[in-house]
Amino acid sequence: MVTDSATETGGRWKGEKQAMRTPFARFTAGLLLSAGCAGWLGAQPAQREAVQVWAAPELVKIRPTDPVQQRNLVWLAADRTVRIAGAADEHVPFQLLITVPPRPNRYTPVMDGFEVEAGPLTGPGATIPASAVHLYLQHPVLVYAKSSPVGATGFWNDPLIPLSKPFDMAAPFREALETRGIWVDVHVPPETGPGLYQGTVTVRRHRQPVGQVRLELEVYGFQLPQDRHLITYMGVWGHWLEDMHGVRPDTPEGRRLLLRYHEFLQERRMEPWFNGLLEPEVELSPDGRVAVAFDLDLYRLHLDTWKQRRVVLEAAPGRLIRQIQAEPFSEEFRRIVGGYLKQTVDFFQRHGWKDRLVLNSPIDEPNTAEDYEETRRWAALVHEFAPGVPFLVTESPIPDQPEWGELTGHAQNFSIHGNQLNRPELRKLISALQARGAELTWYISCDQVYPQPNYFIDAPAMDPVMVPWITRRYRLDGILYWALNYWPQTPDPWIDPVTYLSGFLCSDGGVLNGEGSLLYPGNRVARHSGQPDVDGPVSSVRLELLREGIEDYEYLWLLAALGDPGLADETVRELVSGVSAFTRNPEELYAARRTMARRIAELQRQAPPGP
Total domain count for the chain? Predict the structure, then answer.
């Protein structure tokens, strides 16, 4: 967040909670001070001339040919200082950029041997340990066609690789980078007291010191809530992990790997949409009796330990439907599906989780009169055998064609296509549905074009950040994204950004860089970067920016919960008019964050002490 001294110093800014972990605070990233810092002790003159290091906020995508900046919202070269800010239990990120002269030709060796060591941050009566400072190598991905009018071809930084070995300035396809980014994440431990915490980051190349930057972290006088208040349905699919990791989803190793992906999500205040590990085993006997079995240990992990807000199960899982010989919705069909539903509700009821169960319509994105009619039949089946459990459809509560009939009154929960949010009549209906207990989310897909936000690699950095803000503007309950690991149509997402080739059809001929793929398989890190492979997923700039917005949503929640919903509403209105009209200006967002932080801290001080 930007502080009062932003005009003079480049500002402090609130970062994001980022739970990517490494066991040490020594990382590779050769950093040298920018032109204003060339006199630091120990630096060799040739190295000072060859390399410059500077910083940038996380809300700007820095590309390999971008020029060095002497000052911006987090960095001032004149005093060699990066200034950031955040609450307790946040992960506060910024970018450090290494810039070197261009090679005379492609046969000239790239500069290598970079390392960086982060020290502890010392503040008023406490120390944030060096182990709370994590660094990640921003890996370039070659974009060969732009995704939107504001996109561009060339290299874009997206995968974020934990650093543990020296690295160089090499890029894929025998290219070299002039500027390489390091994603720096400072975790503010829970219960950290307010005040200014200071430390340093020391940079070496071939083990020789080449620079040092000062790091100042302002910790605000409050802590992010442990509970999540934004529903986040994120698609992570075990059968698509097999495409890159080479493990079958129905094996112990496949299930362990999927669990690692789920853990990765919950560390980022997200949760899976359809949780493959929580799907029950369903068997249909020859006499037509259905048996349903749940893995209680995995349920306790997800719901009690990780506090997952929702479990979305199909109204009838495909494995059960494939075993039923009777005609759909016949008496026999209804009896079998009803048995599955009754046992499912009973399991959730016994363990106190019924309020977190959602039953999903088997008809995805209904778009014909027949689809609508079948959806209503499924809704009736759910209401009969699972009373009180909400029925979710991926559709707007207002049909595209009136003759299709209504889904309101049949479905309780709707996940709404982002294009539908442009309809004025929908805004009027949202509050009425929520008054009747509806839970409303929205989703971004391949056919939502600029100026609406999207998760493309070459989209503006502010797009993912503003998705939760847009959610709050429409007073929706959450977001959905269909896949973070859609890899069956790409040879390797590390080298080919167009992972969803068939998206060309739904996007009216658009190229979708990174559509359905906000994660990277960690077992391919070594071959592409030289860093050690990662057990599980590697995050992306885009996913971490989304979590920035999720944390902003928690700030808005705190404002309302502590007694100032008016400021929360006013702040949202200033930044968002609608799904197609919202700020993409980082300075405006930093200013809003600073205002919220001040007010939350004030409200915390005024609150009566707890029991």
Answer: 2
